[in-house]
Task: inverse folding
């Protein structure tokens, strides 16, 4: 494994641990207020990520049904994002696979999925 790959994987591990710790600290039972969405505050509409914090907190408690209710898209997108990060980290190991997975069409499909979720959840 190259130094760049190790650096990326370490950064991802630190980011994930930081998010889990932040979710732990902002859990409503500890009295901390939840993070507020700027888009919802300005427009009144849910953004694609609205409810993600509560969804991941529910996952930390083991409540999959509640997590799905808060933001189903986040539960689907999180493992996909982890997969794409691993593919990016393995760019040197699997160059053909990297090019195939992280193509222009993958980015377009991801943007279309986010846009579709944004429209569907605000109807």
Result:
């Amino acid at each position: 494994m190259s130094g760049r790959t190790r650096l990326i994987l370490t950064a991802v591990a630190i980011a994930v641990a930081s998010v889990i710790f932040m979710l732990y600290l902002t859990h409503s039972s500890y009295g901390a207020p939840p993070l507020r969405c700027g888009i919802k505050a300005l427009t009144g509409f849910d953004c694609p990520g609205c409810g993600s914090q509560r969804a991941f907190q529910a996952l930390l408690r083991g409540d999959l049904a509640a997590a799905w209710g808060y933001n189903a898209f986040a539960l689907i997108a999180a493992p996909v994002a982890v997969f794409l990060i691993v593919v990016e980290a393995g760019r040197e190991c699997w160059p053909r696979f990297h090019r195939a997975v992280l193509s222009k069409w993958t980015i377009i499909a991801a943007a279309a999925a986010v846009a579709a979720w944004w429209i569907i959840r605000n109807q």
Remarks:
- DSSP finds seven helices and no strands in the chain.
- The mean pLDDT is 84.
